[in-house]
Design brief:
Length: 160
């Protein structure tokens, strides 16, 4: 059974935590944030109890691979948040069984997925482009160093 979204656990009027009154002087938010940056309509946040929030995110965390839960056979690149759904998608036969010498026409879906991912990452990061080439930790670190070196060379500031 998939874990519902936190918004699906919401119930109107339910409150998680009641904050105490401030014991230090306060300032109106309008004095600190320009009016153009203030929200006009309240955010539609989920109305859930504290215990529901804790249980929800504990269940989600139990679905993730992490080094404290079990052995993960890779290095530093994997000691991070690895949502279970990412592992499930990566293990689909259309992705997991692709071979570098496979015919182009048989892997267009995977190529499209990687191109779109690169576009999204570029847009999110505000960069002209990204690479999905590094396979893992040390490979990624070497790729990063090579990109920094190429950037310096392109600017006429070569480093050795």
């Amino acid at each position: 059974v998939p874990e519902p979204l936190i918004f699906e656990l919401s119930s109107p009027g339910r409150q998680g935590v009641a904050l105490p009154d401030s014991d230090v002087p306060t300032k109106p938010v309008e004095d600190m944030i320009p009016a153009k940056d203030l929200r006009v309509v309240l955010a539609e946040l989920p109305e859930v109890s504290e215990v529901d929030v804790v249980r929800h995110f504990t269940r989600l965390s139990a679905m993730n691979y992490h080094p404290d839960k079990s052995m993960y056979p890779l290095g530093s690149c994997t000691i991070k948040h690895n949502p279970r759904i990412n592992e499930d998608m990566a293990s689909l036969s259309g992705f997991a069984r692709i071979h570098p010498l496979q015919l182009d026409e048989t892997c267009q879906g995977a190529i499209q997925l990687m191109c779109e991912l690169a576009e999204y990452l570029s847009e999110i990061a505000g960069m002209d482009g990204v690479t999905l080439q590094p396979a893992a930790g040390a490979h990624g670190e070497l790729t990063s160093l090579m990109m920094v070196r190429a950037s310096h060379e392109r600017r006429g500031n070569p480093r050795s």
